[in-house]
Amino acid sequence: MKRLILITAMMTFFGGLLFSQQITRLAVVDYSRLLSVYYQDSRKIKEVNDFENQIIEELASIADDITALEEKKLDAQKAGDDNSVLSYDEMIDQKKKYQQDYLRIKKTQLNNMKEKYASSLSMTTEIYDAIQYVAESLGYSFVMKKSDPDLVWWSPDVDITDAVLNRLAQLNR
Q1: Is residue 49 part of a domain?
Q2: Rounded to an integer, what distance in angstroms lies between the CA atom of residue 99 and that of residue 110?
Q3: The domain containing residue 62 runs over which residues?
Q4: Is residue 2 part of a domain?
Q5: How confident is the model over 123-134, as pLDDT tens digits?
Q6: CA pair distance 28, 45, nearest whole angstrom
Q7: Helices (H), the chain
Q8: What residues pair up with 145 in beta bridges, in sequence order?
Q9: For residue 31, which of 127, 119, 126 has the smallest C-alpha distance?
Q10: I need a labelling partner for 85 at 20 to 30 A (CA). Which of 14, 17, 102, 155 fits?
Q11: Cα–chain-centroid distance for residue 143?
């Protein structure tokens, strides 16, 4: 009987050790939010935002020009001036092509600026160090970006973005 109790106790003890492995905990972080919130006062972010606003203003101006040309075309159609209608059609098409080319080129330039900024080694290292500190402090063993296409669903409870922002703020006081 003592043997049976001893064996049962040993199995319970060793079984507990076997199954006491830490369960992997997953956290998510909104990396783009970290960049925009934490570094919003930075000169580089201001440059990117100014460039983005400049693009938006120019696109609005081009759209206004197209609308004005379309109105003139309608007036020419009402007046029965076919030559002017054709001329306005050509100007509208040219303006729309310019708008598409402008958007494509400026979007590429803007993305290049953002990538160049985001790849700044010191900033990236500081953010990743803060992510690691928060994740380890909270018991997470795995952290993914919210923007990861393989991440299908997550609970807001595992989002450590705010904690990382707090950590970065503590480090830079």
Answers
A1: yes
A2: 16
A3: 17-171
A4: no
A5: 677 888 999 999
A6: 24
A7: 2-19, 31-38, 43-79, 82-118, 121-137, 161-171
A8: 29
A9: 127
A10: 102
A11: 16
